[in-house]
Amino acid sequence: MPLSIIKALISRPKFAFQQIQQQQISGWIPFLLIIISLQLFWLIYFAQVDIQWLIADSLNSLAAQASPSEQQALAEQLTPELIRYSSHISSSLMLILQTLLVATYLNIATKLDSHNTDTLKDWFGFYWWVQLPTVAQLLLSVIVLWITGSNQFNLYDLQVTSINQILGLQAGDALFSFAATFDVFSVWSFILMFYGLSVKTQLKSSTIINICVIPVLITLSFSYVFS
């Protein structure tokens, strides 16, 4: 059944969320798929990347924002082990935190529907289904890594479907972080959230679109302010 639901999320997203709602399918399924895929991605990435090049590239990107003494301290602290462990752990924690924040937002925003009784826990599980395109995104990144055969690829280079492939912004440019990470899989998640909310609430389509767009606008604003 979970496999059929995942297939339906591609071709019949509204039907998929109806099945999830009716059968009360747990959010643990997409959560485990995403977290396991993420950990496998890091294993493959670090098995292929030139770790010394990655350290140098990371230091170069931080150089403009750090003093010489801070650069020296970073160079001493940024070890291969630290990069590996921090990537495995921090990426998962950030994903969980992001899900919690969006779930909190949805729990508040959907109060516009007086008939909706979903709790924060319900929205937390729901948003993992919305993020399932992350698995396809990670798979594509691995394929790109293997096809190129290069061992000098940072994470942004692997985002081959991002809008930055069109805009061509550089690190440090306004909106670079947003443009480099927002891609077709982000659009897919946006569509899934729309259909999911249309099943779980009785809100108008225009209201649901506004609810879906606000997190994107917030991310865009943060990217601009902190670039």
UniProtKB/TrEMBL annotation:
It is found in: Membrane. The keyword Membrane applies. Its main location: membrane. The keyword Transferase does not apply. Keywords: Membrane, Transmembrane, Transmembrane helix. Residues 8-221 form the Yip1 domain. It is a multi-pass membrane protein. The chain crosses the membrane at residues 28-47, 85-106, 126-147, 174-195, 207-226. This is YIP1 family protein.
